[in-house]
Amino acid sequence: MPVDIYWRIHMEGDQPSLRRRVRSRGGFAPGGTAPGVRDGRDDGYSHADYMAEVARAAEESGFVGGLLPNFPHTDDPWAAAATLARETTSYRFMVAFQPGFLHPVQAARMTATLQRATGGRIVYNVISGGGGPAQLWWGDKVDHDDRYARTSEFLDVLKGVWAGGHTHHGRFYQVENAGLPEELAGQPFPEIFFSGSSPAAIAAAGRHADYYLSWLEPFEALKEKFDAVRAHSDTPPRFAVRVDLLARESEEEAWEEIRQGWRPRPSTADNDRQGAPAAVPQDSTSAGPNPAAVRQNSAGAGPNPAGGPQDSAGVPPDSGSRQDSAGAGPNPAGGQADSTSAGPNSAAVAPGSAGRQQGDSVGVRRSRSFLADVGDDYRRLEVAPNVWGGFGALRDGPAFGLVGDYRQVAERLDQLLDLGVDAFILAGIPHLEEARRVGRHVLPLLKGRRS
After folding, report:
1. Closest Cα to residue 54, out of 25, 74, 82, 78?
2. Model-level pTM?
């Protein structure tokens, strides 16, 4: 079966490299590459232009589409998809959205309009939110498990409206004989990538997901999570993993990039004294193993979670990228670090992150638990060969990714395919150059992609 490989589009702005945790490309921060300021005036090269450049580079490099994350501090991904579709020919746009902020009848009409305009290139990344202050920013006070119940009901109504003549009287939604206009009816229904690591999320995914989407974790923990989703579904979904890559010609070069970007982390005791969030205690819903305990084998085997599954260096010379000027600072606290997580900004695990907002995302708590008491020994976070849990300290987003030479990274992706993964959402910093690098040097080495 062919493997769909997506590339993440940086809705929140882009860093020039993992060595510098600043945003100098796009987003809403002025004075960087996009928007650029020349002689005190806007140079006309916008954030949308840079996103379009990344989308074109990813399409040319062999990626089938791109994830458009959803943050409080970015452009809207629905509108971005409409804008970027004109810049590509077959590239799909995975729109991340929270059902609580959109009525299913309006979502059906918006989606059908985009499907008609793009030739069926819209994909859903359905997320249910990470709670805490970030969720309140959206005006949403619904608690964790009820958010997944609402998401499930939302999708029931949306699918009914898509089919036409749908009446529904439920806990969250009431519709009478709802359907699409004749001119919009009959469009292909988008594939659903469903995110969430809690039992409530897994149960909802079993009902609705075409793909169950997870952050990368130690491989055995992923296998357990996939098994739980299969157990909750009469027709099990396929599985997708969101993976950050740092791939270079040699393994030494890749780890040198990490070393250059790493800053010594304060110990848990220091965090407590400074008011920063301490390591999350392990329990049946958020258990995250100690890095040493999961350093077992090349498959990344980790211990069985107690309560069941849980949730300008190195730039190619021909990249065509504009030079970065002094960058703006990192994104505000409280945003979702990556829409696949359904959680708040996981930069809370990074150095200097005291006071970052906390939510109730099981996936985020699980990722944080791997990062306690590491100090300056970043290699302690290599929980299996080339599987590294420190990416959250170098950029906002999930903790785990792959570090190594091109062959090693391709081999780890092949291991994930052997584990049952059917699709990837890959990413790298900066998104433009790394899309070209990964497309040129890693994707051709994937054996599972050719089987």
Report:
1. 25
2. 0.79
